[in-house]
Design a protein that fits this description.
By secondary structure, this protein is of the alpha+beta class. It has a single domain, classed as OB fold (Dihydrolipoamide Acetyltransferase, E2P). It is 34% helix and 33% strand. It has 3 helices and 5 strands. A hairpin with a 2-residue loop joins strand 4 and strand 5. The chain is elongated. It starts with a helix and ends with a strand.
Length: 125
């Protein structure tokens, strides 16, 4: 009898855990569209550098793997992520300091803001 009760309890716990995991996976953040520019996080955060004279350097840094960020028009800085755990460097190649429209899902953890990028394109004039 105890074995059956223990087995039933474990089965119930597993089902509850699976349900919680599937619910969490379904709660995906809504996609947003933001306007702003891509920045290389090293120079922007450590030195505040973001200007036309630095554009080539920023693009080279991002191509080397320096983390890329997105500076929204409202001044909010986001870290850029792919939907899978890969670098965004190919997706944002040569877009530093260029006005762009970015679409993706925003995530916030302990004050850190990030966007999982679904698309990014140069802003039409």
């Amino acid at each position: 009898m105890r074995k059956r009760l223990a087995f039933a309890s474990i089965a119930v716990l597993i089902l509850v855990a699976l349900k919680a995991a599937s619910t969490a996976a379904e709660e995906k953040a809504p996609e947003v569209a933001l306007q702003g520019t891509v920045v290389d996080l090293h120079c922007y955060v450590t030195h505040g550098i973001r200007d036309a004279a630095h554009t080539a350097c920023a693009n080279a840094c991002i191509a080397r793997g320096v983390p890329a960020g997105f500076l929204a028009e409202d001044g909010t800085l986001y870290i850029l992520f792919e939907e899978k755990p890969f670098s965004v460097k190919d997706r944002v190649a040569n877009l530093a300091d260029v006005p762009v429209v970015l679409r993706g899902a925003v995530s916030v953890r302990n004050g850190m803001k990030g966007i999982q990028v679904t698309s990014i394109e140069k802003k039409k004039a």
